[in-house]
Amino acid sequence: MTRDRERGGERVKRTLPSSVVAAAVGWFAVGWVGVSNACAWDSAGHRTITFLAMDGFAGLAPDRPAFLVSDTSRQIAAFQASEADRYRGVRHAYLKHENDPDHFLDVEDLEKFGLTLETIPPLRYEYLRAMAISKHEHPELADGDPSLDLPPYNPRRDTAKTQEFPGYGAHAVMRHHGKLIAAFRTYRSLERLNDSARGAQMEAARANILHEMGQLSHFVGDLAQPLHTTRHFNGWVGKNPHGYTTDKGFHAYIDGGVVSLHKLNYATLRDRATFDRKIDEADPFKDVLEHIRRSHARFEELYILRKSGELDREAGKELIAERLLDGASMLAAMYVSAWRLSELTDRDQEDFLRYEGLAGEPGGPERPAKKDEKKTDAGAGAGGGAERKATPEEAERAWEGAGAGRGTGGGGQADR
Ligand SMILES: [Zn+2]
Fold it and tell me: What is the pLDDT of residues 54-106, one digit of tens each?
């Protein structure tokens, strides 16, 4: 272990708060550095994946919300599929710091933190903790393998601190899968209530579904782009025995140029789309890792085809088409699983009403009180503000609703 590396370990341990401050200060001093070179598919590619997956969703789950069939709904979801990239265009270090690493997972770099795709912790902050501990205990690992001729991580060149770790792509997919389940469940609650006073709520619920379908599409789509799963995300880095391209326009070409060259879009791909991916509803994370593994397995082929010139011919067209179609198939499976996992129980419905009761607040619509129900302040807490003593069963439900279990919309309000 060198002295430099020891100092690096100390820095991590003692000066994290000031380095965060420095990052923010440095960021605002430097200003926006532009959309980085890891955007994944241009909006055309993300739209294509979304349209295809919505077709797959319709076929696999005919009971899905009927409003999704309209052209406007499809267009909104497809537009939202690029929203996470639009976040990147805002001068906001805090957003960049959180958002940018959600778009990739550089599989080889897991090794630098003692991890692999098989051992990556499914929970985001457990994953971060494992990496921070590993980096502290083995800074020599975090600096990478000198035999590969890779430069060590340089925090001074990473103002918003987005490149230190291998990325949170898999965790971003899980976050939006969860949010889509929540959005679907709220929709189901409102549909069951069928209350004209809740028209605005239903409109919001539909918008949330389309937003989350788009968000999920973005991150599933990003990870289907092989360059989002490798440290060689924009030209080969380090030792390069095969003489692969180091062109800093390579990523952008895969995102958009080659897609457009081969005319790969919804119209040309829809007849080839098959929707045979499955999600294990009990453990979707491992299917997401498989999705990443399939994509990562093909990244070097992109470099080989670029070198041979085949990228612009049939072989390149087939590879890119396969990646877009696989992204769409995976996304359709995630839509289906989110819809299935959002199925409403009576308890969910009761929870929804407990926290979203229309209690006659000023300007709000009125819901007639049931005979045995006293008016309460909506969202007054896990107990719902009910004045009568809760039965043990109700108390247990309220407790679970406040945690991370099946509690719907209002559950979280009791927490904070
Ligand atoms: Zn992206």
Answer: 999 999 999 999 999 999 999 999 999 999 999 998 989 999 999 999 999 99
Domain match, 194 and 314 both: yes
Token pair for 136: 């502290």
Ligand 1 ion: Cβ-proximal residues, 5 Å cutoff: 40, 103, 222
- Say how many domains are in the chain: 3
Q: What separation in Å is there between the alpha carbon of 218 and the centre of ligand 1?
A: 6
Q: Residue 204 in contact with residue 190, Cβ under 8 Å?
A: no
Q: 48 and 23, same structural domain? A: no
Q: CB of 54 within 8 A of CB of 81?
A: no
pLDDT in tens, 242-260: 999 999 999 999 999 999 9
Query: What is the Å distance from ligand 1's center to 316 Cα?
Result: 22
Predicted TM-score of the model (pTM) = 0.81
Same domain for 381 and 310:
no
Q: Is position 94 within any domain? A: no
Choose among 209, 254, 182: nearest CA to 70: 209
Q: Is the pLDDT of residue 312 over 50?
A: yes
Give yes or no for a contact between 78 and 46, defined as CB atoms under 8 angstroms apart: yes
Same domain, 408 and 292: no
Span from the CA of 80 to the centroid of ligand 1 (angstroms): 12
Q: Which of 166, 185, 204 is the last residue of a domain?
A: 166
Amino acid identity at 183: A
**Do 183 and 196 reside in the same domain of the chain?**
yes
Size of the chain in residues: 416
CA of 78 to the centre of ligand 1 (A): 14
- Name, in order, each residue with C-beta under 8 angstroms of 24's C-beta and a sequence gap of 6 or more: 93, 94
Same-domain status, 175 and 149: no
Residue with tokens 């969703």: 57
- Whether residue 320 is contained in a domain is answered as yes
Q: Ligand 1 centroid to 236 CA: how many Å?
A: 20
Q: Does any domain span residue 366? A: no
Cα 158 from Cα 219, distance rounded (Å): 22
Distance 219 CA to ligand 1 centre (A): 6
Contact 106, 167 (CB under 8 A): yes
Identify the domain containing residue 140 by its residue range: 3-31+107-166
Band (365; pLDDT cuts 50, 70, 90): low
Give DSSP secondary structure letters for 93-133: HHHHHHHGGGG---GGGGGGGT--TTT--SSHHHHHHHHHH
